[in-house]
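User: what does the whole thing look like in 3D?
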Amino acid sequence: MKRRSFFKASAAAGTVLPLTLNGMGVKAFEDSPLLRSLGRRSADGKVLVIINLSGGNDGLNTLIPIDQYSNLSKARNNILIPEDKVLPFWDKPAAGLHPKLSGLRDLYNNGMLSAIQAVGYPNPNYSHFRATDIWMSGSDSNENWTTGWMGRYLDGQYTGYPKGYPTAAMPDPLAIQIGQMVSLTFMGPEVNMGMAITDPTSFYNLANGTTDPTPSTPAGNELAFLRLMAQQTNQYATVIKNAAAKGTNKSNKYPTGGRQPLADQLKIVAKLINGGLKTPVYMVSIGGFDTHSEQVDNADHTIGSHATLMQQLGDAIAAFQDDIKLLGLEDRVVGMTFSEFGRRVMSNASNGTDHGAAAPMFVFGKAVQNGVIGANPTIPSTVTVNDNLPMQYDFRQVYASVLTDWFELPAAEVKAAMGGKDFNTLPIFKANKASIEDYVDLVSRISLNQIYPNPAVQNTKISYFTESGHVKLSVFDATGQLVQVLKDEWHGHGTYVVDFELIGLRKGNYYIQLSQGDKRITEVLLVQ
Amino acid sequence: MDRKAFFQSIKSPSVANSFSADGSPQGSEIIGKKPLNRRTNTGTNAYTGTFGKDELMHLLRRTLFGVKLADYNQYKGKTLEQVVDALLNVSSTLPNPPINNYGNLVNDPNVPYGSTWVNAALDPAVEPYRKGSVKSWFWGQMLTQSADIQAKMVLFWHNHFALQFLEIPDARACYVYTKVLYTHALGNFKDLTRAITIDPAMLFYLNGRLNTKKAPDENYARELQELFTLGKGPNSKYTEDDVKAMAKVLTGWSINPLTNPFSTTFLSVNHDSSDKQFSAFYGNTVIKGQTGINAGNTELDDLLTMIFKVDEVALFICRKLYEFFVYYEIDDSVETNVIVPLAKVFRDSGYSIKAVLKTLLMSEHFFDTWNRACVIKDPLTQQVGFCREMELKFPASTDYFLLYQMYQMGMNFGQLTQLNLGDPPNVAGWPAWYQKPLFHRSWINSDTLPKRNQFTDYLLFIGHKVGTYTMIVDPWIFVKKLSNPGKADDLIADCVSHLLPLSLSAAQTASLKEVLLPGGIPDYNWSDEYRAATDPSDPNYKTALSTATVKLQYLLKSIMNLSEYQLS
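Assistant: Here's the predicted 3D structure for the full assembly of 1096 residues, as structure tokens:
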């Protein structure tokens, strides 16, 4: 990132730049046809709520491949959820949700949940810091980007921000992040688009018009004065406070306040949207997913730290969605979860899991195509400690889908927001041209018929079938790293056989992945 | 106000708006003015309690512009008296004078680029550049202060004997004025008053130069009493006739703009040599009229002897010192237990500034926990303090153009946040140090508070750029000197205890930890990152260094954006 950008970002987010409320911003806003159209839309504008599961969520214990239980039980017996406790999808019983995710299951039953299998990116990084940066910036694994995917999007929509803002057409923060300060997600080329609340309770204080208690000393009195000034100084304080005062919550499903931070945050988001804020993006977060140990209770795998997180996640989303419905906002609001990585296939000896790679994402709301996108991950029969799931979908396909099918951004601008790269959309939203059924019924379009020999030593043959179209045949190693692309070209309808030289490959499991468009199928090859 | 009213007021920002807008007394009673259940009755007896880190930091925060780790280490382990003596034992060597830093912009025929102009002839063509030079230089003197109280006292006296460089037509006179402040900062208050009275800049600023027998000008005579020595408290009962008589005493003092440098002169022809009768407030003193070349000096001495006999002088100065170094609220207890005894020390010592400061800074009252962390930093203390705390590396003194550009940046930020060094708003100094009821709070409003945060953000993240040179905080310089920066909890605790005068709540600490370790990931993630970032042989050195640097920048930003950072 340019230093200038960082400064502006921090100034605009943590504190506030001294902006003037003159007509300049409005004028700039009206100059662009695109912005005019957005401005027109903004009265009933669409909202995306991003839920950050910080720490790396164990995807295999979240969206569980029930048809892989025999191999799962070998790989992670000490944390495995009992098969009969998994909440299967009613129409796709081969996959199911963590028993504490009844909130999401109910959403699915009501047709409001899109689950996307094994989302990741080539050559995954296992550092929290680095992986988080990749997810927030939308960069490749080997790139260091200083802008965030949402920041680039918002920069395209609100040209020149923050100069001249707030405007009459956009009087509210472009993005609100509750929780930690200045997410890379909202970093634009010049400035961070997000308003972050740095003090842990200041957001609630702002919404409630209170301040933190201070000691009854002269120092306490001066501190109270300074905090009040800081609150008033925030240029968006008034609009937020007004929205909070005007807005209400209608759902009775929220847990008691002060105990479950995610539900508390989402409750405020619902209130602000209902109160009339035009802010198009919110980000909330819940930590604690770095479950290296004791992620389940030793005696009862359906409880424990991960189960508590699942419960909080599912219940918070369910309450939020219920509220959104009761508030009449269903057509305007969708939510999306993400985590910097999934966790290792094999559990460790401390009843936990170490940093992994691909993991599921959830998108929820009335606008989604209900269903599960992608196939269950294939769990090898012999798993070693470093084995990871290969990605089925790139996380930037999900981002591109949000921009294309939710924010209705033209393809060229989606590409710009994705940093100049093309990513195919997925049928996450009803607005998508493709049907989710295309993605479920894989076998009729492509199939991996046979890998022989398997296990193999020096070489093997891969036989596959495809309908006509562009086909990609990729090899990932057990850690999820892309090793080789065997085919990446247009195929006619038919069955094909490819020789795969194994010389130079380390012994162990490899994933052979066949894909056409976004339809993927994966088999395990054991190299000896 | 009762508790209910207090809490209602806290919930109602509109009250605060009216408060910040007009500073009405009602407002000040409401905002953050919890009725305090106790007050302190501690006095000027020497403090005998624990003198640990908290106490030493409190003392250093109040007497320095920010505390460098090296400052703390220098005094750590010494007794209170040793530390106070060292803080008061300031150098008698004057700082190097301001220089021609403008030679690349304009030619100064009398002064080579990089040399000082303070002894060169007045040149209207370069005068504005010299004025800029002396202002930047003045800021630089605060920055390059030694670890003693001198710089703070220079600011105190600059605020007390306030004049505006903008109004002075000769930058050399501005420099001479600062020399007076440096020379007498810890000296004798009566000597300082005398030096200021006939300082060329002051003679210009308050029209002393125009005060003649034929056309007396009462301006300085009035301020000498009202602002510089007696104040305008209820016991300061000089009369209008005293002002007139005093003006007569001071006739004849003038400045010679042709001298090089700009200097004071006494023109006996303009001096009123009649006897001057003063009121009962001054014991009906008559100052005998004098003639000749020494008339001015003799009568000025007599005048100061008369003024300094009045008890109110010491009381007035001690109150101002108290408001500057302790807190702005002086209730009956403070007046009785602190101000009165302190004023006696001041008088008994013959107005030794050092003596009165030693008593104050060693007093049980100064170390009373009641009086800690309650001063809202003035802009210089916030901004110079930040640069010193972070040990921001300024250009070398040989890069004078760059160095002065950086000083100017600091000076400009001070101006934006209402402390324009060299140019207080008027002769009364800055309202934060005299204006009831706001006092220190008048530094803070919806414009200045974000700018204070901007200053720290700016130097942490972008740096100040001049040409191709960028001056930016290297967070590692500060962080690597801490006891255990590879451990997140220790790093945060050390940063907080060094940079903030108040401890933080568990939620605030957790929020800072979230900057280093988002989502509650285990502490070793930071330790690993720190280790890799500080070991060039580590394969992940470069990535880790970049990630860890950003995290440190944000950690420091988060701390400096806390309201607590504005307190001292």
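In plain terms: Residues 435 and 442 of chain B are 8 Å apart (CA to CA). The radius of gyration of chain B is 26 Å.
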